[in-house]
Specification:
The chain has 173 residues and is α+β, with helices and mostly antiparallel strands. The protein is built from six helices and four strands; from the N terminus they run αααβαββαβα.
């Protein structure tokens, strides 16, 4: 990725509310160059959406859970389809504040999700629902809960550290 694209992405990750003119000034390029580059980044899929990161605690969420799940070994494609179908059904019936749900490797688990909860009872209800997903190894379901009211956190969800880090990527190429 070219230097300008990385620098522009970094600036947008730090604050996407700035105008193209303001971005151009901070990057030392023209406003039309910024506009064209943003459109290219969108077309190429580097920019998926523009959003904000709210204070989740002020919105009423007291907990954030990082939950790790293990499914039975070697699920077939049909079994995975069943898992996805049931998960979609459960999500429609039980709307929740899920930040992400992904497959991966680690801690002897194969799925991780990050969700916000208003209370511990909301978390407990969500875990009962997770247990309805087929082929889930219930003995290998674990959650790390974060109290969003705790003042000792080092860094809550923010794009700034990643925005600064991507600028080092160009030096590695």
């Amino acid at each position: 990725m070219k230097n300008l694209k990385l620098r522009l992405l970094s600036e947008l990750m730090k604050n996407s509310r700035r105008s193209d003119r303001q971005l151009a000034k901070s990057l030392g390029v023209s406003q039309p160059t910024v506009t064209r580059t943003i459109h290219k980044l969108e077309e190429e899929g580097y920019i998926k959406e523009y959003t904000i990161i709210p204070d989740f605690n002020k919105l009423g969420y007291d907990l954030m859970g990082l939950t790790f799940v293990k499914h039975r070994e070697n699920l077939s494609k049909e079994e995975w389809k069943e898992v996805h179908k049931k998960t979609g059904q459960l999500e429609k019936e039980n709307p929740h504040a899920s930040l992400m749900a992904v497959s991966g490797i680690g801690f002897n688990r194969d799925v991780a999700f990050i969700t916000f909860y208003q209370s511990y009872s909301d978390y407990a209800k969500a875990m009962r629902i997770v247990r309805e997903v087929p082929y889930t190894d219930l003995d290998q379901l674990e959650t790390f809960l974060v109290n969003l009211k705790d003042q000792s956190h080092y860094r809550l969800l923010s794009m700034s550290a990643i925005a600064n880090h991507i600028l080092t990527l160009e030096k590695q190429e």
